[in-house]
Amino acid sequence: MEFNVKGITFTLEELTTIKLSEIKVATISRSHIFHMLPGNKKAILLLRAGDFVEPSFVSKYMDKGVESFYQLEVLQEEDIIFFKSHWSKLKEASSEYEKRVIRDNFIKQIATDYWFNKEKSVLSLVVSCFEEFYIYPPHILEKYQELSMVLYTRSLLIGAISSVAALSNDLLDYDFIKDFYNLAFIIDYGLIGYDNFNFVTATACEYERNEPGSGVTYLQKMNRSDSEIESFKNHPLISHRVASQYEEKFTYPELIEFVSLHHEKANGSGFPKGHKYAAMTDTETMLSFSDYMVPFNEHIFLKGDGNKVLHEYFVQLKELKNNEILPIKKLIARWESVMEWAKKDIEVAS
After folding, report:
1. How many angstroms separate the Cα of 341 from the Cα of each of 37, 111, 160, 223, 246?
2. Which one of 15, 43, 120, 337 has the fewest CB atoms closer than 10 angstroms to its CB?
3. φ and ψ of 65, to 5 deg
4. pTM above 0.85?
């Protein structure tokens, strides 16, 4: 019997049981968690893979005497262990040579798992980055999840992609990567800061992502209010203010300024300030690269989605209309060359 619950398709045979005590709390769920009604005729989704697991989730069901649930596994724990161990090695590395070796191994694993393998989930990378780097209080996650699962899952993906982008561009300082992850995680928060994120705004964001410069035009065409249009244009500044509230948690707080620049364009037609590419470094534009790579769709973490996120989304980014006005041409070329290097190196080794 096949089930389809909120976009998750599975059979009863694919489910395994998980003890309530085995569900990790205060982190990202590794699997989709279900309760099966008597007779196993209907599955109720309690947690999705990728959801933040509140401690109250487990305590609530423990108080009810529940001992276990069914789960649809999305990843293998050893994949998370690989990525986390390499983040830890990078943190402890004392020489540039050591850092480059760690970087090479990490990138080759990314290429193996996601660039030409269509079986593994990007959730392994997402969880490892979240558990290694995330600095904000729980209410940031809660508001993302409460007001927009589109923005919540995008933040998880953009954060993970930004970490790989940093490695790909030879930025091997652990503290820099940690700071950069948290900048990427917060860049869309301004879209929900005033509870104004809705379907039309999400569509405008996707228009902007697919054809840089078209988001405001779409909102005007839809006769949206001046305040909504201004909120859309100013969300990088709002996100910047939120990140600035946690300045003491950043090793390099001067990087927070990057958040306000992630929608600027090479020709000065971007927002909110209209900066030109000549005024920005490649490092500053890495947030734009990570942001434009991920669509404004709610992402459901499933086995095999890694190739879609790290490879297919990249191909789509290369083909975006008017992408030449984005200040990320060098970053696109670098990402592709690094992945192709890793692929060739793996083929030679095998």
Report:
1. 50, 9, 20, 48, 37
2. 337
3. 85, 10
4. yes
At residue 32, what is the residue type?
H
- pLDDT less than 50: residues of the chain: none
User: How is residue 154 written in tokens?
Assistant: 């995008």
- The owner of tokens 């790909």 is 168
Distance set, CA 67 to CA 30, 59, 62, 63, 321 (Å)? 18, 11, 7, 10, 52
Record the tokens describing residue 9, joined without a space.
């398709």
Could you tell me the sign of the dihedral formed by the alpha carbons of 162, 164, 168, 172, in that order?
Answer: positive
Q: For 169-225, where are the alpha helices, taking DSSP H only?
A: 174-186, 199-210, 215-221
Measure the CA–CA gap between 142 and 140, rounded to whole angstroms: 5
Token pair 């080794």 is found at 349
161-214 pLDDT tens trace: 999 999 999 999 999 999 999 999 999 998 885 556 788 888 998 888 887 778
How many other C-beta atoms can be found within 10 angstroms of the C-beta atom of residue 62? 12
Distance (Å, whole) CA 85 – CA 80: 8
* Whole-number Å distance between alpha carbons of 175 and 12: 44
Instruction: List, in order, residues 6 or more apart from 12 with CB less than 8 Å away.
Output: 1, 3, 40
Nearest to 237 by CA among 196, 190, 181: 190
The set of residues, in sequence order, having a beta carbon less than 8 Å from that of 348 and lying 6+ positions away, is none
